[in-house]
Amino acid sequence: MSEPMTLDNSFQQAEKGTSLWQDAWIRLRKNKLALFGLGVIVFLCVIALLTPFIAPYGYEEQDLVLGASPPSAAHWLGTDIFGRDMLTRIMYGSRVSLMVGFIATGVALIIGVLWGTIAGYTGGRVDAVMMRLVDILYALPFMIFIILLMVIFGRNILLLFLAIGAVEWLTMARIVRGQVLSLRRQEFIEAAVSLGLSRWTIIHRHLIPNTLGPVIVYTTLTIPSVMLLEAFLSFLGLGIQPPQSSWGLLISYGVETMEEYPWLLIFPGLALSITLFALNFLGDGLRDALDVRSSKD
Amino acid sequence: MPLLEVENLTTHFHTRDGVVKAVDGINFSVDNGETLAIVGESGSGKSVACYSLLNLIPQPPGKIESGTALFEDCHQQKKDLLQTSEKDLQKIRGNDVAIIFQDPMTSLNPYLTVGEQLIEPLIYHHDISRQKAIERAIEILGEVGIVEPEKRIHSYPHEFSGGMRQRVMIAMALITEPKLLICDEPTTALDVTTQAQILRLVKQLQQQRNIAVIFISHDLAVVAGVADKVAVMKDGCIVEQGSVEDIFHRTQHEYTKKLLASIPEGAKPGLATSTNDSQKNDTLLEVRELKTYFQDHSGGWFKGGKKTIKAVEDVSLNIKRGEILGLVGESGSGKSTLGRSILQLVPTTNGSVLFDNTNLTQLSKHQMKSMRRRMQMIFQDPYASLNPRMSVFDTLGEPLLYHGLVTRRNVIEQVLTLMDEVGLARSAIRKYPHEFSGGQRQRIAIGRAIATKPELVIADEPVSALDVTIQAQILDLILTLVEKHNLTMLFISHDLSVVRYIADRVAVMHHGKLLEVGNTETLFANPEHDYTEKLLSAIPVADPTKERERQLAALS
After folding, report:
1. Which of B371, B387, B432 sits opposite A188 (nearest CB)?
2. Has residue B488 been placed in a domain?
3. A18-294 CATH fold
4. Phi/psi at B546 (nearest 5 deg)?
């Protein structure tokens, strides 16, 4: 009796569609830690979106009489030296930080994966030219590159995303190219060619899914480094400007007053750390979920 | 008292999925001047058993649960290897007991000259001067048949061929004058003619030195020639043990009988009837003076002086519809390149490939794509030829959907039919390649190849990565499918007995050239070319008596 049961089951499953992502989602749901990470990220994103409506104070609202005060009932996370509510500033800061983190990484991800795959799979001169271009961009001092962009196009938050993304994709492209170089010698790629599949089909069905493991790990490492990069640029006056805030900016101001007002460093730092932890859990979970070999079912 | 006496050896692996009883209470012994062969399929525990003796298994997850292994060391003292401390074992390894591994490429350090690697155990174990050690190394290289050993001692491993490298490994194992030599599939990675030489060498050295040899192999035919005693292992247990004559001529256990029966022997079944088929007269594939050269670009962009490798040189052959042409040759003979050149998977240099009267070398990439549906390939390594991230359904469904042979709605039906044909359980449709054994994976690969209903299938060593019992099943599956779909096949293999079993005609390749083509039985009975004769005489026979006779003949 068991045979027809499993048969029906497989029919239904197959009919539901067989995309890698659906399978990955089924496996991811079993990973509690990754789900927790995903939950935290979603929660943070929702808070960031709703900030203008739910923030307890305005982000520019100062209370110079109060000045820097430790956490209290009125100001849960305390206030900074201008008497601005820290919770509000962290909430507003999350909008910038998360946006920079995700969009800039997204830009890096898309350019890097495509560039690396095409270079690695095509090989020969195309590969050589494409990778030398990457080398040249690597050699350009990053700061000069960004300052130039800012000078030419003016200060613009979108430009900041693009600029960071344009630098971060280089490493991604190298990682992916290395993966693809070893993959394309494998027989399943040759089998795909002999099936008559087009180059694009081979790239997106056979190559890219097999590079996902390292790509996802690198992505989860890129997001925090991008957030810190934004802080660095803002600190230099090239990114966003006070009174706007971002986590990176808050942290760098917090460091200056660390000894007198530690909460100005602790809370933005905590916000960043929680995000990074959540991202790492999610990244690990995603990597396992996308690697069909690791599944134990 | 034997040199090594193993009793009740039990090694378990404690994995996440539970305990794997890799070796489950086995007994064997081996004496000076004796060769014990341990035979079994992959996963039978034959290697784990031997590595347990020297504590070479990864621990954890591995654990030697119980057993004794009494070994007489160089001071005539009895020692239980399983109770010996790691420090004392280091003295025994490489000194009293030496191991030759399967792959001579990976078991030599590519950054050291072979001389450096040869003298290392001598200096470590015997504390003799460097000069003396080098003299000894030269001497032993000569003994294992390396020409001009005093020069070759300064060469790096990559400067040797596979067979020569295995000779170096043997020299390295023997340089400390061990009393026990463990050979773990020493010839599996080698060509058939090289294999014969290495086997002869091991036998000869053993007799000269009167040492004990444990010979691990999956191939009963190889064992027939070298072993005095044979132990057959399955699932961690020795199912049958005895003298080589007993095992081959007076087989007791069912499993041993199955192993022996799986060795491909004799000609293709039903050969006489199928050749009279009227369809066989029209030629499906005609290869004319095909040349495939590779440029060696190791010089880089700016350096000139490219080296040309002539992988396929002036090959002409034709295959009739419904015929299986076997293509044999040793590694590097260009047989795989020829297969890939026919399918235009590698660019050809000159000549033509006429498939159903269309010259494939003249087609544009786009035109070639539509032809690909009619010609398919089965690859050697079922672990590398399947996309690890695609389920059976995806793998088999992709060619069907891509070429528009089915609609999205009835693709499942087609995939299930395909799975039936290649003998896969329907319930496995959603599984991924890693969940299958090698044989099942090869069935998936075969399913993919026949999905588009091709006319020509090129099979590149489709069974050489498989265990012998699985090999027989896959060969029979291929024969059935060829018959059923009237497939035309180019069957590439280094294994002549497999080719003899499956092919109607055989072509022999050597150094990129086609030496001869002929009907299978004619060619096996009366090879025209010297090289073919040499190849044929190197095939090991699963019969100890015949093997002995042949070895005597070869020596005299």
Report:
1. B387
2. no
3. MetI-like fold (1.10.3720)
4. -65, -40
